[in-house]
């Protein structure tokens, strides 16, 4: 059964959370869009388990969150265009598809990496405690609706993962926009429209 901590208790349990995340266990936590599920990017077994728990096709790569621009740049090639978008929209709901660096494990699926710094402080805190980026995908079964209610999260994942950060019921928000920086195209429509992205890049 998962260790369940209220979002207001994250600082109090920081040492325990750090140990849990660095050991490779899977966590569910709030983001600025919905509840996310993730683990450290270096844990192959846990990454594989997330695919299994979500019933997610291996052909659908998992997005990643980082604590800061510096952490992003250790795992992805942050071009000048990507840095412009970071400065305009992050922390926030914009995932950038970028070339991956060699720090990303060879077995990690996808030729590139989708990465962002989330707007939710708790999600960023988990990355800081883990010391590396986290897999961060919606905490639901692939193809089904996203979870905003903590009861749904508990019912689905409580006995299958290591940690749950309980932030209560989250407001309904659209998912992050996914933008392919190299090819200048939207891969998933989300909270940030393409017009705003184009304006940020033109400055």
Please trace the helix and strand order, writing H or E for each element: EHEEHEHHEEHEEHEEEH
For the record, the count of structural domains works out to 1
CATH superfamily: DHBP synthase
Q: Largest sheet, described in full?
A: 6 strands, mixed
**DSSP summary, beta strand count:** 11
| Annotated CATH topology | DHBP synthase
What structural category characterises the helix and strand content? Answer: alpha/beta
Q: Estimate what percentage of residues fall within beta strands.
A: 15-25%
Strand order of the largest sheet: 7-4-6-5-10-11
What CATH architecture label applies? Alpha-Beta Complex
Task: Enumerate how many helices there are, as a single number.
Answer: 7
- What's the CATH C level? Alpha Beta
Uncertain spans = none
Calculate the mean pLDDT score and round it: 95
Oligomer: single chain
What gyration radius follows from the Cα positions, in whole Å? 16 Å
In whole angstroms, the N-to-C terminal distance is 50 Å
Helix content: 25-40%
Considering the chains and any ligands shown, give keywords for the structure:
203 residues; globular; alpha/beta; five-stranded mixed β-sheet; DHBP synthase; 7 helices; six-stranded mixed β-sheet
Layout of secondary structure:
Layout: E1 3-6, H1 14-22, E2 27-30, E3 35-38, H2 44-54, E4 64-65, H3 69-75, H4 80-89, E5 94-99, E6 112-116, H5 121-130, E7 134-135, E8 137-138, H6 150-157, E9 163-166, E10 177-180, E11 185-188, H7 194-202
Parallel strand pairs: 1-9, 2-9, 4-6, 5-10
Antiparallel strand pairs: 2-3, 3-8, 4-7, 5-6, 10-11
């Amino acid at each position: 059964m998962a260790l369940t901590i209220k979002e207001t208790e994250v600082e109090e349990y920081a040492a325990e959370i750090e140990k849990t995340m660095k050991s490779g266990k899977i966590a569910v936590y709030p983001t600025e869009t919905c509840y996310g599920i993730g683990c450290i990017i270096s844990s192959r077994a846990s990454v594989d388990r997330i695919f299994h728990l979500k019933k997610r096709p291996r052909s659908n790569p998992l997005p990643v969150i980082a604590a800061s621009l510096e952490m992003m740049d250790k795992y992805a090639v942050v071009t000048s265009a990507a840095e412009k978008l970071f400065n305009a929209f992050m922390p926030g709901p914009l995932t950038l598809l970028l070339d991956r660096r060699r720090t990303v494990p060879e077995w990690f699926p996808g030729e590139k990496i989708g990465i962002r710094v989330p707007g939710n402080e708790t999600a960023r805190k988990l990355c800081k405690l883990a010391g590396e980026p986290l897999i961060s995908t919606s905490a639901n079964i692939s193809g089904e609706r996203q979870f905003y209610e903590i009861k749904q999260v508990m019912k689905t994942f409580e006995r299958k993962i290591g940690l749950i950060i309980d932030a209560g019921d989250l407001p309904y928000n659209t998912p992050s926009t996914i933008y392919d920086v190299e090819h200048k195209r939207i891969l998933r429509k989300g909270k940030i429209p393409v017009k705003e992205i184009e304006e940020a890049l033109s400055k």
